[in-house]
Amino acid sequence: xxxxxxLPALLLVAGLALCLPSCKCQRDVSAxxxxxxxxxxxxxxxxxxxxxxxxxxxxxxxxxxxxQETPSLFRLxxxxxxxxxxxxxxxxxxxxxxxxxxxxxxxxxAKNVFILHDRGKNLAQKFNVTRYPESFIFAPDGKLIRxxxxxxxxxxxxxxxxxxL
Length: 165
Known about the structure:
6 helices; alpha/beta
């Protein structure tokens, strides 16, 4: 009788054990490590700051929708350095075109903005990026809270609410 009564509990424990390796929270924590694995084009290394949301944004200088969203994204990050860290990941073939493009946006020089160059798209593949731009918003605890495929206006109320602005 005891074995029969404990069977549901045993199945629950076994099921949890099988699910834990693929837990989203564990993948999200490693996402921060993945972002830190690529140095910024100014040679700084991204490290998540305590209490900060992190936006990982994949883009390219030749991508029309990326160009469209760039001003509002850089403005959001530069206006809220106490809450937001932007990791902007270019998949362009060369750094020179990235630097030329960024020279149009002084906000890209903010201390809380890290520009990475993912020439081989290795980081984009690890994030399963399927289109550009594509963004991932991580909570201060490192958990993925929002996937944003495509261009958006980062000044929208929904993003203000996410970041508590």
